[in-house]
């Protein structure tokens, strides 16, 4: 990556504020730009720019709040160089190139999984397909909420037993990578909202994930909670950070009671552990309950 006006971009938290940035085809101009997050596979990036600016990632427009807040992220195996472009109100453009740092992931071997789980029946495959449609629809929402910019807190306090990116080998057969952060805990243990938001999905009996809850944090950033034994909220409810929203369980295809917490930017699966590192954007911390545009 070429040297830029940003400091320590690759694989580290980056912050830029009121920097003198060179716009394409023009002399340097001052632009408010703040980016928080790790430029790494699975990383969530939360940014702020000047009011009225537009932001694009690989020429796709990002939702930008009236406060100038936006978000995006990198998938588990993303090794591409991405173009971040800011277009000022007067039409001037600034471009920055971001290449996520590669990671090494844990491999876990689990034996003794029931053959019925390994080879779902035709009826089960139909349920799995329907479950996927519901989850993708919930994650496709790009509301005006800016809760993602107020930081994340762990949704449970149990021992972490599974991490993002690890690939599990069931009965000797490699399966899809794990995209969540697993917290062990007895059935009924409270699960808290890691950030404020709106409940967009609750299904108590999905085939693989059992009790499944989705909270929209705004701009396509969502939390998904799997294997729940119960929900304490309903679809459409507004929840606060730290509020009890569900209970740990062992529903669906689970080897024991635990919470599987996942974070997405639309269909891009992010690392929840990295989301926990995003600080609260104090500049935009609401003085009231208002969290939308």
CATH architecture of the largest domain: Distorted Sandwich
Radius of gyration: 20 Å
Give the strand tally. Answer: 22
Largest sheet: 10 strands, antiparallel
Which word captures the global form?
A: globular
Number of helices: 3
Terminal Cα span: 35 Å
Overview in brief:
By secondary structure, the protein is mainly beta. It is built from three helices and 22 strands.
List keywords for this structure.
single chain; 293 residues; mainly beta; Immunoglobulin-like; Glucose Permease (Domain IIA); ten-stranded antiparallel β-sheet; four-stranded antiparallel β-sheet; 3 helices; 22 strands; disordered N terminus; disordered C terminus
Structural description of this entry:
This protein is mostly beta strands. The chain folds into 2 domains: 19-98, Immunoglobulin-like (Sandwich), CATH 2.60.40; 107-284, Glucose Permease (Domain IIA) (Distorted Sandwich). Helix content is 9%, strand content 38%. It contains 3 helices and 22 strands. Strands 11, 14, 15, 16, 17, 18, 19, 20, 21 and 22 form a 10-stranded antiparallel sheet that branches. The chain has a 4-stranded antiparallel sheet with strand order 6-5-8-9, with no helix packed on it. Strands 3-4-7 form a 3-stranded antiparallel sheet, with no helix packed on it. A hairpin with a 5-residue loop joins strand 1 (19-22) and strand 2. It is globular, with a radius of gyration of 20 Å. The two termini are 35 Å apart. The model is unreliable at 1-29 and 284-292 (pLDDT under 50).
């Amino acid at each position: 990556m070429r040297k830029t006006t940003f400091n320590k971009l690759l694989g580290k938290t980056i912050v830029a504020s009121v920097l003198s940035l060179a716009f394409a085809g023009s002399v340097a101009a001052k632009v408010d730009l703040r980016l928080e997050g790790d430029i790494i596979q699975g990383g969530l990036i939360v940014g702020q720019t000047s009011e009225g600016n537009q932001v694009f990632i690989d020429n796709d427009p990002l939702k930008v709040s009236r406060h100038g807040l936006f978000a995006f992220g990198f998938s588990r195996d993303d090794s591409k160089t991405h173009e971040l472009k800011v277009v000022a109100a007067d039409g001037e453009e600034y471009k920055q190139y971001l290449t996520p740092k590669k990671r090494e992931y844990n491999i876990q071997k689990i034996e003794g999984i029931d053959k019925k789980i390994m080879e779902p029946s035709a009826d089960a495959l139909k349920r799995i397909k329907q479950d996927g449609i519901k989850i993708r629809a919930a994650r496709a929402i790009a509301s005006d909420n800016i809760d993602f910019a107020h930081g994340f807190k762990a949704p449970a306090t149990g021992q972490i037993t599974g991490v993002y990116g690890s690939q599990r080998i069931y009965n000797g057969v490699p399966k899809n990578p794990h995209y969540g952060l697993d917290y062990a805990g007895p059935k009924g243990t409270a699960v808290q909202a890691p950030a404020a938001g709106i409940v967009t999905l609750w299904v108590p009996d999905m085939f693989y994930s059992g009790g499944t809850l989705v909270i929209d944090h705004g701009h396509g950033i969502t939390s998904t909670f799997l294997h729940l034994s119960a929900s304490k909220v309903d679809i459409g409810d507004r929840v606060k950070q730290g509020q009890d929203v569900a209970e740990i369980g062992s529903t669906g295809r689970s080897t024991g009671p635990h919470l599987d917490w996942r974070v997405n930017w639309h269909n891009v699966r992010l690392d929840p552990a990295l989301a926990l590192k995003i600080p609260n954007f104090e500049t935009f911390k609401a003085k009231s309950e208002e969290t939308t545009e």
